[in-house]
């Protein structure tokens, strides 16, 4: 009887997933490289998640398949974030063109074993969105690439484990992959928008990145609500909520207006200084002209605010 091969590094792999879960709970879904490079500990031994110079990685102490794959964003050149197709699998290029090359071999070994990996997806230089578990679904020899699919965090099965309904498993993985790509779009949009505004709220200048959000001018649900920087505003939580609720408006000339319902109200310092105090002031704009809010988008959104107010 033939038995499915077993991943010899399974306990280490599970420890890596657990360590990433802890890191993302502490730091958020996007991790700086300085946090990733610390690695993790298993049985008092130190392991690395990834190597800064390698895309396909298996740490010392593991002897089977790769543990992680990584894509990076260059520190120079145009920043791209709209090339993640919403449907289908991720396509990951093999190193060189030789399937026997060590790095390619340990990645294809993951496909043979059916063992899960970590995908460190570059969001900005030095920042990565870890996605796990991901699986190598197929190898395209002609394109020198593999197809990568994501799975739900609860779907981590040791290779060789019997799956009752393989067809349903594949459907669920395709769905999980689509959801993972949508989250990547959101993460990329946030990082690029906040970076364009130099990590400050465009209304109040709050300089804390972890408290900032990327607000869509044309709403995300709108067919025209593309995740481009010129359709975004860096806002703190308070001003993002007020903007989405049409309690704070921004005119096409970048001047802030506050809804009359708030202007007529009398309350504590948050209302007086956090909202009413910005009426008539201009938002802070990105230095790059291409990153600044599109006036036509602002005008359309301001009309919605005006009618609501």
Shape: elongated
Number of strands: 13
Alpha carbon gap, first and last residue = 73 Å
Largest sheet: 7 strands, mixed
- Summed up, the helix count is 8
The fraction of residues assigned to DSSP E strands is 15-25%
- Low-confidence parts: 78-83
Derived from helix and strand composition plus strand pairing, the structural class reads alpha+beta
Percentage of residues in helical conformation:
25-40%
How many discrete structural domains?
2
The chain-level mean pLDDT equals 86
Strand and helix order: HEHEEEEEHEEEHEEHEEHHH
Rg, nearest Å? 23 Å
Structure, explained:
The structure is a single chain. With 309 residues, the protein is α+β, with helices and mostly antiparallel strands. The chain has 2 domains: 10-193, no CATH class; 200-308, no CATH class. The protein contains 8 helices and 13 strands. The chain has helices spanning 10-27, 33-36, 102-113, 166-196, 237-244, 260-263, 269-274, 295-308, and strands at residues 31-32, 40-42, 45-47, 56-57, 68-71, 90-93, 117-124, 127-140, 145-150, 212-216, 232-236, 248-250, 256-258. Strands 1, 4, 5, 6, 7, 8 and 9 form a 7-stranded mixed β-sheet that branches. A two-stranded antiparallel ribbon has the order 2-3. The termini are far apart. Residues 78-83 have low confidence and may be disordered.
């Amino acid at each position: 009887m033939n038995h499915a091969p077993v991943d010899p590094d399974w306990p280490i792999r599970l420890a890596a997933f657990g360590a990433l879960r802890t890191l993302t709970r502490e730091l958020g879904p996007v991790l700086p490289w300085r946090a990733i490079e610390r690695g993790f500990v298993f049985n008092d031994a130190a392991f690395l998640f990834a190597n800064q110079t390698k895309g396909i990685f298996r740490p010392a102490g593991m002897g089977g398949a790769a543990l992680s794959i990584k894509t990076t964003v260059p520190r120079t050149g145009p920043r791209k974030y709209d090339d993640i197709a919403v449907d289908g699998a991720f396509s990951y290029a093999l190193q060189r063109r030789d399937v026997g090359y060590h790095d390619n071999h340990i990645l294809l070994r993951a496909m043979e074993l059916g063992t899960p990996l970590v995908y460190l997806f570059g969001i900005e230089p030095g920042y990565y969105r870890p996605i796990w578990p991901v699986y190598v679904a197929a190898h395209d020899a002609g394109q020198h690439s593999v197809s990568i699919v994501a799975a739900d965090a609860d779907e981590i099965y040791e290779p060789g484990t019997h799956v009752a309904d393989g067809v349903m498993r594949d459907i669920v993985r395709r769905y999980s992959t689509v959801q993972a790509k949508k989250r990547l779009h959101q993460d990329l949009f946030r990082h690029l928008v906040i970076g364009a505004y130099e990590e400050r709220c465009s209304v109040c200048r709050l300089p804390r990145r972890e408290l900032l959000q990327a607000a869509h001018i044309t709403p995300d649900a709108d067919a025209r609500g593309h995740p481009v920087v010129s359709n975004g505003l860096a806002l703190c939580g308070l001003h993002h909520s007020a903007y989405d609720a049409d309690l704070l408006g921004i005119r096409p000339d970048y001047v802030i207006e506050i809804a009359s319902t708030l202007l007529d109200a009398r309350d504590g310092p948050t209302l007086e200084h956090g909202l009413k105090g910005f009426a008539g002031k201009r938002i802070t704009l990105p230095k790059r002209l291409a990153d600044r809010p599109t006036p036509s988008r602002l005008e359309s959104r301001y009309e919605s605010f005006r009618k609501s107010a």
